[in-house]
Write a structure and sequence with these properties.
Layout: H1 2-24, H2 27-37, E1 49-59, E2 63-69, E3 75-88, E4 94-102, E5 105-110, E6 114-119, E7 122-135, E8 140-147, E9 154-165
Antiparallel strand pairs: 1-9, 2-8, 3-7, 3-9, 4-5, 4-8, 6-7
Amino acid sequence: MHLFKLSVLVILGAVVLGATMAVVMPQAARDRVALASSGPEPGDPDAGQPFQANVTLSIPGPETLGSFAVPVNRRLVIEQIAVRAATPAGDMTAKFEALGTAGGTVFGGWLVLTPQGTFISHRNFYGLHHVRIYARPGSLVRVRASRNNLTGSGFANFSFSGYLLSPPA
């Protein structure tokens, strides 16, 4: 019942926010917000080249790292990260995160996954995150998968999608 009430409050909040934007924000400003949140427009000369990358990790121990490289002559804008993972049923915790480096500073965030139950002795997790992460030309985008048990092995598959842009002049 608590989850239902929370869902109703979230929906009502979205409706009120949308109505407030329609009344307070001029149409031209609403158009700019919509364009800024949707990525480059098709046919735009500065539009990005579509990009996808997958990183699959075997997780035999408490922590496993993986990465992919951003092309040296392009900037990467990541817009979506999908994760599918499985750990042995006895594991109590499973953590997943995406990390990058920009200007010598490590950035990143935990990816929240939803447990989907146990299937053939493994706990299954799925998550889909809409993000806006920028990565420099030639940098590495890293992923990390952690679990609390050394028995058995798990896996995680991270799928990234977004677009590549020419570096600024």
